[in-house]
Amino acid sequence: MFHLARSVYKHWNLREQHDILILGLDGSGKTSFIESLKAFLSKPSKALSKIQPTIGQNVSFVSMDTHHIWKIIDVSGQKSFRYLWDSYFNKENVHAIAYVVDTSDPDRLQESVNELKARYTSNPSSVDIPIAIVLNKADQCLNISSFIDQFTELMLELDVKRSNVFQTTTNEPNDLQEPSEWLRIQLQENKDLIAPSYR
Ligand SMILES: Nc1nc2c(ncn2[C@@H]2O[C@H](COP(=O)(O)OP(=O)(O)OP(=O)(O)O)[C@@H](O)[C@H]2O)c(=O)[nH]1
Ligand SMILES: [Mg+2]
To answer: Is the CB of 76 under 6 A from ligand 1?
Structure first.
């Protein structure tokens, strides 16, 4: 009886963990996006002005509620670290992706599209991973439609099952509501394809 009660108690206390991969070119605003998400969720967060370019990768854990935790993997976008993207861009390793794009720099739009496309080409089953395309630096964007068109076309061309496009400015934490809520729903609805881990 004691053992039964203990296992019920243990099961009740287990939390669902989802691993969220944050990718995008250097300087697109990935680390700012993560810190802004923490601020939106009223968690301790770093001042955006103190963020330095990421060297390699950083992992942080964010409690979403009493039963759900996100392991957020922030990988550097610098060219010399992009080889690291490949080790995560795989449905065995992540439950969802946020792909952050700097919309203040149209000259790098094609590079951003090409880097994402290349990951799907080498890992075709990644189309099962929900992906939020985060069109960031909306405060400095002059022509958002070319970004929306290119990424929407890419998602259709690759037949990605669950994708959506969002516009954000990282010093507006409320901008994080829509992408985080969308990801939360996708993670639950996609459980049959990519099961969470428990901790
Ligand atoms: N105007 C504006 N600047 C932003 C926004 N988000 C981030 N930035 C700035 O963009 C620069 C790069 O931000 P990071 O968050 O370090 O970018 P990153 O993608 O993590 O870069 P790496 O770690 O080098 O891959 C910083 O100066 C940020 O303050 C935004 O929404 N609007
Ligand atoms: Mg960074």
So the answer is: yes
